[in-house]
Specification:
Blueprint lengths: L1 E6 L2 E11 H13 L5 E13 L2 H14 L7 E5 L8 H4 L6
Parallel strand pairs: 2-3, 3-4
Antiparallel strand pairs: 1-2
Helix pairs in contact: 1-2
Length: 97
């Protein structure tokens, strides 16, 4: 499950349980369709399992690029844990520069 809240121009996405690439895309697209903050933090520390391949990670980035069309640069941080390796996210830009 993914829930998000915005405070002080930062949106916090809290991911719990098992999560798939499709769930991330749906939640991110819903957020991006509304008013966006300048900063976002995705917290995967309470995630049981992230079921995402390298190809799916690229698909997430590509999908978000199509939705992010206001030309504004935003900062995105990914937080994981020992059990959840989110290193793939460092390799791909989530938003156009």
């Amino acid at each position: 499950m993914i829930v998000f809240e915005t405070a002080d121009n930062c949106t916090f996405f809290r991911v719990t349980g098992d999560v798939t690439a499709n769930e991330i895309i749906l939640q991110a697209a819903q957020y991006m369709a509304g008013e966006q903050s300048d900063n976002s933090l995705w917290d995967f520390t309470r995630t049981g399992r992230v079921k995402i391949s390298t190809t799916e990670m690229k698909g997430i980035a590509d999908s978000l690029k199509h939705v992010a069309n206001d030309g504004k640069v935003r900062k995105v941080a990914l937080v994981g844990s020992k059990a959840i390796n989110i290193g793939l996210g460092k390799l791909l830009p989530l938003l156009p520069r």
